[in-house]
Write a structure and sequence with these properties.
113 residues; 4 helices; mainly alpha; 0% strand
Amino acid sequence: MTEKEEQFMQYWAANREREKKWQHQLLVGIPIGLLFSLPIVVIQITGKYWYVRADMVANTMLNPYLLVSAIFIIAVFVAVFYKRFQWDQREQHYRELKAKAERESRSGNTVQQ
């Protein structure tokens, strides 16, 4: 195994439970979630410049509290989903490296005997 793989194994063994918690995933992932929901705000703000009729309809029918709550829900969902997906990828990589290390230790033991 390479040095980088060994460092990852040590890091992930120490931090995997902390990064699995949804609170940690939310706090770390919220910038990505807000970045994902940012185009909704940009379109709403700039809509009056490129499509006047849609802006008029949105202003008469759209509740601003509904828009803010929808943006918040989208940001939270994307944040948790994205960080959970990353956690699963890292966990799979950790298990693969662990199996690789176990195979190498077994093959090393059979060669030495």
